Structures
1.
Amino acid sequence: MPARSIGSGTLSFGLVSIPIRVFVATHSEQLSFNLLHAPCGTRIKQQLYCPHHDKVVERSELVKGYQFEKDRYVTFSDEELKALEAEANRAIDIHEFVPLAGVDPIYFEDAHYLGPDKGAEKAYHLLAQAMRETGKVALAQYVRGGKEHLVLLRPYDGGLVLHTMHYADEVRSLAEVDLGGEPKLRAGELEMARKLVQQLSSKAFRPEQYKDQYRERVQEVVQKKVAGEEVTAAEPEKPKAQVIDLMEALKASLSRTAARAERVAEPEVAGKRRSAARARAHERPVATRRAHKK
């Protein structure tokens, strides 16, 4: 089924304008639960409560407030907020092109696919191809919901993907986090850590090999409960003892990953041996038949 567009706009760089359509690129598969009243199993409803008047209030009695000090607010009407919104503009204006490696992933928020609108296919693919060949991504701004958003556009799988970005003042500094100073690292420990990184390294990112095992376990139990089966909770695993000796932990990790690599390699080697044996067995009768003919 073709993807359904959630919006449209214009992608602009220089004097070039490309009509585009926006599509959802990702969705969450996280499981959610509803709160039920245990005696009857009815889903509960949440109410708006004012602790000052000790009563439930209607939505028509609500106003929006901005907290400027603890428990002190200035209020805004819908008309005031509407007047402050950015002017509606469907254009995504590219400000500059930069190397993707120069953009830290901490700034990324979410992703949408961009596709060309009718008649804009050539200009769309021209931009995507130019960005691929130059190794650049585009930084732009556009208005959505009355607010100005910073976005990054990059070539992806033959097309373009748009990432909503955090502004610089929305990203907290790591300096706020206590990193425990700079402990002295011994050369042997660092060398073992490098080896462990190499052993656990892969040539490429393969997202399909990772599964949400919690979701699978919950869905399995849901199916059993729907079928009326009795489900008993498994005993939770006891936490492992904390490893104090860093060098011993590195050595044990290296041994474990090496053993795992050998187990993975064994079936491949055995398969190659079986294939070679089958090939030799297939060749022998042919040679015999040829000798018989002579």
Note: The first strand starts at residue 7 and ends at 13.
2.
Amino acid sequence: MRRMILRRLLQAVPLLLIVSSFTFVLVSLIPGSVATALLGDTGTPAEIVAIQRQLGLNRPVYVQYWHWLDGVLHGSLGSSFQNHQSVASILNARIGVTLTLVIATVIVVAIVGVSLGVLAAVRPGVIGRSVDSLSWLGLAIPNFWLGLLLVAFFSIFLSVLPSEGFVAFSTSPLRWLESLVLPVIALAAGPLAIVVKQTRDAMVSVLESEFVRTLRASGLGERSIVLKHALRNAAVPVVTVLGVLFAQLLSGTVIVETVFVLPGLGSLAASSVSAHDLPVIEGVAVYFTLIVIAINLLTDTVYGWLNPKVRVT
């Protein structure tokens, strides 16, 4: 296991370089510039050129990237073009919101998705078909559209849940929970459908296997077979899917945090792209990549624990 962790960490280095370099190039191709974003319509060509020279944006892209990379190697992600604050301090103030949203969504997806998947597998009749229909509905509705529908119904029509903002747990646990309900539902709909289908298919395959028939022939109860034996074997592919979905949820936060006005990394990425704030965009890309690497490590560890015969070495 230690070799696996070490190898994954070594693989993270070229991955970070690839992600950061591609982000740098793609941002440079976005029409407009940070100078025009700062000066607005009142900026003269001379002022725009002066700001670009001051920020080093008049240099070739590869020179700008090397300058940024040199700062990272010295422990600095640079400063924001917009407010000149440290990029690391800006990201650290927001990462808690994004991680809270994503982790809460993963917990909901795992509990509800696995439960519905198991139910659909052991009750393949009307219940199974109903679960399948709900799953396809979750995949069909975009999360931003679902978010707007949730706001219209629960915030405007019923006035029972807030439509925007984030309340820290230390401030009020109840308001913290209320501020997460709608964003989590909007973010979880698509992944939930995937987990339900994956769990159902895996459970059906395991329940039809030889060892389950042997357990039934020995007189073991159906509940014990499903929960203690079949579910553990079916959980191996489900855990892998959850690890992949965690990475996808990070990209989904860009839309969901914008819809619900949450002060996380996703909404920061969206506003930074509009403002052409390159150091902040690079910082968000690095943080997202590090989170994905950590989740992949955790997924590999849980995968090996669930199935000792399949050890990741």
Note: Residues 31-76 form one domain.
